[in-house]
User: Fold this.
Amino acid sequence: MLKTFSLGGIHPEENKLSSDCEIEVLPLSPVVKVPISQHIGAPAQALVKKGDIVKTGQVIAKSSGFVSANIHSPVSGTVEKLEEVVDSSGYRRTAIIIKSEGDEWEEGIDRSPEIKREISAGKEEIIKRIAEAGIVGLGGATFPSHVKLLPPPGQKCELLIINGVECEPYLTGDHRLMLEKGEEVLIGVQLLMKALDVKRAIIGIENNKPDAIKHITNLSKDIEGISVQPLKVQYPQGGEKQLIEACIGRQVPSGKLPIEVGAVVYNVGTSYAIYEAIQKNKPLIERVVTITGKSVKKPGNYLTRIGTPVSDLIEAAGGLPEDTGKVISGGPMMGKALSTVDVPVAKGTSGVLIMPDKLSSRKPVQDCIRCAKCVSVCSMGLSPYLLMALSERAIWDSAEEEKVLDCIECGSCSYICPSSRPLLDYIRLGKSKVGQIVRSRTTQKQ
Amino acid sequence: MEKLIVSPSPHVHSGDSVKKNMYGVIIALLPALAASFWFFGLGALTVTLTSIAACLLFEHLIQVYLFKRPSTISDGSAIVTGLLLAMNLPSNLPLGIIIIGAAVAIGIGKMSFGGLGQNPFNPALVGRVFLLISFPAQMTSWPTPIISRTAYLDATTGATPLSVVKGGLISGTPLSELMAQIPSYKDMLIGTMGGSLGEVAAIALLLGLAYMLIKKIITWHIPVAVVGSVIILAGILHLADPEVYASPTFHVLSGGLLLGAFFMATDYSSSPMANKGMLIYGVGIGVLTVLIRTFGSYPEGVSFAILIMNSFTPLINKYIKPKRFGEKPAIQKAYKN
Assistant:
């Protein structure tokens, strides 16, 4: 019996069309648009202005708080301007537009392909350099990675969990990274173990990637403290809380963080970026992005510089298919539908999914038939039908009691509803309103 | 460039629909339907077709002419109600009575509350119980299986196992004697016993349950809770006095228990939403069924038990919530080396 989480879950079609496609380097784009907010927390503050010459890897925006991150130039060239561009959220956000000229890198960055195995950095240095390199969670949440390495006083990390699950259908970037850069990922894991001062790390990988499980198990068998945990293919296995429960059987309490059960979770892509940051002195300026879709001519996984327009990836995959309905940043369950293909790739862009138009439209909404399927698939044990009904009627105090804030927005409820009810849409509304109410309550207390 | 569709996630859907679930239930009922045709022949066909047609007609008329909304009969739920109502009727029930039953089931049991998803009671049972009280003679004359195949209104009738046992116990006959008078358990499994269309063939009903579970139309909680609690309560009573209290096997195979546990109690709208709630509801039905059958004056108790527990569903939904993730506070130390 494979380990998995205890409540709910669904199994959508996996569609891992690009799982056998080796990572290719995407050619540089003539113009990149680097948003100053690619992470959870305060946006970074731009350090450059129009006309400045920048080198690849140079800091161009600085972290502006504890929960914030540095941003580095993904190309070398001239800063054209600072302008608001539409990002994957659909909103206009400030971005640094750079005209790419050549590819001259900052001094000190080690570009050689050899794997540097020896870890010489100490705990404090590792944390400092992760912060300097602008590393954020590459699983999609984009939480500044160094913040998790500094648990609040009184809480100690006992275990590091590495998320190699990649439970979203279609996405294969993490899979390829584990296969092709397995050693580097493991060095990143060891760096994290040192930074957190833990002796044990578990790497969770979903069972639909047997080659990755075998490869990483092989590579890690001589490394003390690291083990691989194959997991049942069940969405959302890669959700932080579900992953922790599947690996160690403990549930993160409602409203609390994983450190509450002594665990810290990092994505495999983030581990790789940390390897590069510490061992190669390279800041986060590029990431593996999967370009995929049933009508896409050439699905693949591309090492892409931040700021590259999504249209470049689409071109590399054979162009935008005739029957395109949606272009999604991310996977089909939690990704964001883009309004334009000019949206730049950001640190959190794990994939670009082209959805054919006949699969892109929602079905007409019918009345709730009270089949309770949404309740049975909710991995947080909530009652989506009730949360939607409460949000529709703006009964926010009951929504709060029903723990609407616990929702991880995985989308399983909307996926399964036979009446095609927009459950998650209303739950998001509920979360937003109840969140505002809760925040104003704490500020009132002060 | 053509416009892109922008809508919130998720961007895929399971493909499940109300229709799929309703037609799934219909397919699950096909073995029992086939059994009813085999055992009760022409009568079964007549009752089934009439019930379904009447339910469809009433739902369509009410929806379109009274509510002035598009007809909903294509979602299949009226067919399910018609089928389940028929399954609860004797195969020699006159047409007029069937039509009245359908009108009550659909009109009062379903549409008066707002249609699919709003009914607090199982509509087919509302119809059945109304008929039982209004036409007690016709509703309790049960054609004998196989002999009555070619007959409809003039079918030969006889007693059902439940009525034999009830009547016998009231007159003081010990159970062991009564058991000899009713069909064997093998016959009750296959369906060679008197009763309504749908309640006779246990094997056919079990096949239907398996189909619904595999297709994820229902979960195991309600059927298991109902049958399980019947077995336990009947078992306790039978152990206490085997000559007065019928065995669990008898209770499970006789009457409408399996039909009720699998198809009637599991009606979406009138049953609880959380697994724990479903178990409590199922146990309530099982206990009430045994109590009514044993200590009440009706030989059959499933329909009443279900309707009574239906009325508790809103209360159960309010107080019994699903098990939540992260409810219990966790202690700090997560992992022991």
Summary: The beta strands of chain B are 142-143, 157-158. Chain B has a mean pLDDT of 91. Residues 33 and 305 of chain B are 24 Å apart (CA to CA). Residues 18-66 of chain B form the longest helix (49 residues).
